[in-house]
Amino acid sequence: MGDTNERTAERTAKRGRPRSFDRDAALKAAVMEFWERGYEAVSIADLTRVMHIKAPSLYAAFGDKKTLFEEVVEAYVREFGGFVERALAEEPTARRGVARLLREAAYWHTLPGHPRGCMVITAATNCTAGSEDVLRGLQERRVRTLRLIEGAVRADLAAGELPAGTDPHVLAVYCSAVLQGMSQQARDGMDRETLEAVAEAAMRAWPG
Predict the structure, then answer these.
(1) Which of 122, 176, 193, 196 has the smallest count of CB within 10 Å of its CB?
(2) 3-state secondary structure of 103
């Protein structure tokens, strides 16, 4: 009976033992790895190396690679990608919101010491058939951004801020295309000042 109690106590102690690594730091390392290299190029071995944990600890703390990537995207959006929603929510018109988000994209897409561009745009550009759900998840996020812009444009149109006949969907697609293009230009090494000039040039096409 005593031996049984001791074994039970030992198992309980192991289950209750705190992790031997910093989960937040490990997650941040995974964000950087996926952001830099994309979903397909990153292996579990790569993740354990940069996160400084062993595979069993990774699976126990984060689940499989796809589950970890979902958490990585959430963490990325919270820290680096929330500027789009903030700009559209805080500015009084769609024009000012889009001008701000494009200007801020030039900053966020060229952060010193970080991978360039937007992970939501670039992390799943070459997914295999087995990762279609990953591709769809990022596509859905990009579509949500498009719809946010379109909703702001429609509100401006209804308020008389835009000329009658303005197509909200086409204007939103145009803005999204500029945003995504700026991300790729940043990946290709374009500097922040040039991207800010691109943002200003894009806004000169705004109706009215």
Answers:
(1) 193
(2) helix
| CA atoms 175, 180, 183, 184: torsion sign | negative
Q: Where are the alpha helices (DSSP H) in the chain?
A: 2-16, 23-37, 44-51, 55-62, 65-76, 83-90, 94-108, 119-122, 132-158, 168-187, 192-203
Q: For residue 28, is pLDDT > 90?
A: yes
Query: Are 166 and 150 in contact, with CB atoms under 8 Å apart?
Result: no
- The structure's pTM equals 0.85
Compare 191 and 21 and report the one with higher pLDDT: 191
Q: Each residue of 125-135: pLDDT tens digit? A: 777 777 889 98
CB atoms under 10 Å from CB of 81, counted, come to 20
Full DSSP string of 53-80: --HHHHHHHH-SHHHHHHHHHHHHIIII
**DSSP H/E element including 2:** helix 2-16
Picking from 81, 118, 77, 101, the residue whose alpha carbon sits closest to that of residue 153 is 101
Q: Are 177 and 198 in contact (CB under 8 A)?
A: no
Task: Give residues with Cβ within 8 angstroms of 26, minimum separation 6.
Answer: 51, 52, 53, 61, 62
* pLDDT class of 155 with cuts at 50, 70, 90: very high
Q: Pick from 181, 179, 180, 158: which is nearest to 168 by CA?
A: 158
